[in-house]
Write a structure and sequence with these properties.
The complex is a heterodimer of chains A (263) and B (385). Chain A is of the alpha/beta class and 263 residues long. Chain A has a single domain, classed as HUPs (Rossmann fold), CATH 3.40.50.620. Chain A is built from 6 helices and 13 strands. In chain A, strands 11-10-9-12-8-1-6-7-13 form a 9-stranded mixed beta sheet, sandwiched between helices. In chain A, β10 and β11 form a beta hairpin. Chain A is globular. Chain B has 385 residues and is an alpha+beta fold. Helices cover 45% and strands 15% of the residues of chain B. Chain B has 10 helices and 10 strands. Chain B has 3 domains: 97 residues, Butyryl-Coa Dehydrogenase, subunit A, domain 1 (Orthogonal Bundle), CATH 1.10.540; 104 residues, Butyryl-CoA Dehydrogenase, subunit A, domain 2 (Beta Barrel); 146 residues, Up-down Bundle (Butyryl-CoA Dehydrogenase, subunit A, domain 3), CATH 1.20.140. The two termini of chain B are 33 Å apart. The longest helix of chain B has 37 residues. Chain B has a 4-stranded mixed beta sheet with strand order 1-4-5-8. In chain B, strands 2-3-7-6 form a 4-stranded antiparallel beta sheet, with no helix packed on it. Classes of the chains: A alpha/beta (263), B alpha+beta (385). Chains A and B meet through α2 and α5 of A and α1 of B.
Amino acid sequence: MKIVVCMKQVPDSETQIKLAPDGGGVDLHDAQFVVNPYDEFALEEALRLKERFGGEVTVVTMGGDKAKEALRTCLAMGADRGVHLNDPAFAGCDSLGTAGVLAAALRKLEYDLILCGKQAIDDDCMHVGPQLAELLDLPQVCVVNKLSVAEDGTSAVAHRQIEGGSEVVSVTFPAVITCQKGLNEPRYPSLKGIMGAKKKPLDEWRAGELGIDPASVGAGAAAVQIRQFFPPPPRSAGRKIEGDPAHAAKELVRLLREEAKVV
Amino acid sequence: MDYDLPDELKLLQQTIRRVVSEHMIPLEPITPEDEDIPADLRAKLEQMAKDQGLWLLFIPAEYGGAGLSIFGQVIVWEEVSKTVLIPFRKDSIFGPEGCSILFLCNDQQKERYLYPVIRGERVPCFATSEPNAGSDPSAMTTTAVKDGSSYLLNGKKTWVTSGDKADFVQVVAVTDPAKRQRGGITAFLVDMDTPGLTITGKFELMMEDRPNEFTFENCRVPEANILGEIGQGFVISQTWITMGRLRQGAKALGVAQRCLDMAIEYAKHRVTFGKPIATRQAVQFMIADSEVELHAARLMVYHAAQKLDKGEDARHEVYIAKLYANEMVGRVVDRALQIHGAMGLSKELPLERWYRDVRSRRITEGPSEIMRWVIARKLLGRVSD
């Protein structure tokens, strides 16, 4: 089974987010970067399927030079090959632009299944997986927390999380699945994997190699423009309800009903 | 000297960091202070390390281990020392560590000592200090006298870490009183059940370690149990202690980094007189000094490790790193505890335990004064005597 995992390098969730002084972006100068945690679920699922069916796991990422570190991490975890979509023209892509670049890369790759994280933890858009499926004209199942692949490896039953329950979907391959927490427990890179990661193939593809006109991607071509970043307003101090518990409970319910209007 | 970690070590560092923060730090508040973590917990953590392919990190590839460079081992020690979960003198969860001189075993000895240690079947300990000979091996009085095809050992050894948990001891004794440390000291492998070897003491200390005293009384050890060559014992114990000093330096880095991180976090959130204490210059200076000293210590430890990896004599660099890193960590823990105020005294946080533990590190594996003396002796030559 040939599986492609789409991965994004994101700032570590423990990084302190600082806004650039002009409000035009986030200052990531001091940030530590990691593999997007939802993409780790995708990679882990891919590696387990490879262990079951054999085949090859390729990880594709779009990003600057630094993103190569995240690809190496994926190779150390057990992926067979990395593809780095790295071109200054890609900078500033919106989600559709990113999906377009990924789709161009996937047209050059063989695959039975495409696995993505359900979202990246930096911009939290949840767009790229579904957009990619549309661009490649593939079936998609999003926010999957259980995946049962058929014995012959050509279809699957996927459980996707919906409000208040789960939806069970059967899907034939090739398809795009976006992965949710709970799907599996991602492994750490093993020492053998770490030491061997450098010897695995890691290709770098630029716009030209993907047949992409540089003017058609990146910040200039983005349909979505981010106008401003600003921090959420500081939380105001809480209110303390004094008095005996019975009275305080009544007062709390009254406030929830009359002021907060939530009950 | 390359100031950047190679890519592999960066990845190893990130991986061990995740294991520590996801599987070890969350257990900190519930572990009672003891010589080691509970056996079932250790078994569980070690199984996880095995399952994840992070096992035998301190064993060369030729013995089935990871074959990490010394620099790589330093990175692992630094990361794993960021949790107070595992007592300082115990092996981490990534496989046995006390093997550095067992690699000198001959083939027959390897079957009985080295391989069982790697497999986790036998526990070693190391005995060199004596009641009247710690940093001064020339005062060593434990003797090994040849008697037929064996040696009779007599004398006392003290401060033997994990002595009562061990299956055998790596012990050094005087075989030629005329030569002493210049070829008159020999290392032996002695099974703990050998007649004439008794554990005669166990010391309660200010940290978790509960070392033992051993007494040898006409303890008969076969010639075949000599480790290395006759007269090589002093060199062997220097090898052991050089690695021990480097390890102690590396472990100081992790403790200091965690304490500094905790101090920064606390200073940002602790409000007094209407402002976070991070706005006070007194607190800022404590944090800045800790960062500067930690950075300096890290470069020293990494440099010593890189030099050892090149096969060069790095004893001087190891003295420097051991001295500075262990004095540094004392100051950093002290400042972090001060920034935390009364919370720093609480057993809910690792700080007070580290505060007691790091004090011991200016004494163990060679006290700071001995480090200064050997550094000065190299610089000044004979005049310093």
